[in-house]
From TrEMBL:
Record protein name field: Copper-sensing transcriptional repressor CsoR
One GO MF term attached to the UniProt entry: DNA binding
Pfam families (UniProt xref): Trns_repr_metal
CDD domains for the chain: SaCsoR-like_DUF156 (cd10152)
GO biological process terms, semicolon-separated: negative regulation of DNA-templated transcription
Length: 103
C-alpha cells in the first residue's frame, strides 16, 4: 500500500520550469533524437562498427548534458520549493536520483 501511495503522489507532481529552459531542453532532445535516427540508419546500412560506436558515444554525451542541465534546474526549483514547503523527503529522493545518474 505504501508503494502505491508514493507512486500516486509522484504522478501528481509537476515541474515548474521557465519556458526558455523547456524550449532549450526540447531543442537539445530533438537533436539527440536525430542522432539516434542517424545511428539506426548507420546500423541498417552496415556502416563500420567503430564509426557507429563513436556516434553512440556522442549521443550519450549529449544526453548527459541534458541530464545535468535538468538536474541543476530541478535542484534550483523543484527541490528548493519542496524544502521550503517542509517536504524534506525530497532530499532522499534527489540522492537516489543522483546515485542512479553516477552509476
Amino acid at each position: 500500500m505504501k508503494q502505491s501511495k508514493e507512486n500516486e503522489i509522484k504522478e501528481k507532481r509537476k515541474a515548474e520550469h521557465a519556458n526558455d529552459l523547456k524550449d532549450s531542453l526540447v531543442k537539445r532532445l530533438n537533436r539527440i533524437e536525430g542522432q539516434i535516427r542517424g545511428i539506426k540508419k548507420m546500423v541498417e546500412e552496415d556502416i563500420y562498427c567503430d564509426e557507429i560506436l563513436h556516434q553512440i558515444m556522442s549521443a550519450k554525451a549529449s544526453l548527459d548534458g541534458v541530464s545535468k542541465e535538468l538536474l541543476k534546474a530541478h535542484i534550483n526549483s523543484c527541490v528548493v520549493r519542496q524544502i521550503k514547503e517542509g517536504k524534506e523527503e525530497v532530499v532522499d529522493e534527489l540522492m537516489v536520483t543522483i546515485k542512479k545518474m553516477i552509476k
